[in-house]
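input
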Amino acid sequence: MACRRRTHLRMVNAASPAYLARYGVPRSLDDLQRQKHRTIHFSTMLGARPYGWEYPDGDSYATLQLPGALHVNSAQTYEAAALAGLGLIQAPLLGIGRYLESGALVEIIPDFRRPALAVSLVVAHRSNLSRRVRAFMKWIEGVLTPYLE
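output
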């Protein structure tokens, strides 16, 4: 297997307008706790300890533990819970960009986004890639470009 690292997917902090009307719009990390915000926890394995609210802290990232409204292991459920107004999410712009454009979700505290997600293309081998594989790689790079950092 050969891995071609591309770049990183931009992350966004978001919530529904209904949720923000109920809890207030956080403008800082302190607001997250003071206004008693809740997150929708996401992990690939249910029962795993939630990561918490990740944010930049100097040259690295730190985690703020916030109460969870729900714990999910599906991207679709994660987005649906945010759209239903159940809590705050930190998700790739690629997945929720259409909801931000339509106003169904609103970006919050953009200066405190979690680390971007690495994006790589993995192919069976590096030599003799077929034209179809090369065409797909070029196409997917074009699709992802607006969402990359």
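quick obs: The longest helix spans residues 131-144.
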